[in-house]
Amino acid sequence: MPREYRHLTYEQRCQIYELMQQGIKQTEIAERVGVSQSTICRELAKGSGRKGFDCERAHKKALQRKSKASSGSRIIKPKVAAAILRLLIDKRFSPKKISKQLKEDLGISVSHETVYSYIRKDQRNGGCLHTYLPIGICVKRRNDWKKIK
To answer: Which of 8, 49, 51, 56 is the most buried (most CB within 10 A)?
Structure first.
């Protein structure tokens, strides 16, 4: 049976703070808050600063991480897109090799998964970038793999 994951609420973070102030161990805090002990451990690590754990600061940091994660940080800039196209079409590099080459040539870190996403997006829009992938490279589509011929 799959687990259901939920983010901690501000109230839960405040409860963790209060229980930490009372000197209660992480396992006991986890039981009282209703989450796993590893969740408490991660929350204390991520939400602590120089002065220890603070529920307001921890919640603010969590919201910032959540916002950053969904902000579309994997948008490829035109300069990088041009380099990807050059390496894919002219040199027929694999996404992993493109990623490595971009790091060496331009000093830009782009994961091979981002390159694959770029190719899949092009394919969904009717493009043909996927045809330039080396033979045998697969493009993941939803939950199945489509082998490019």
So the answer is: 8
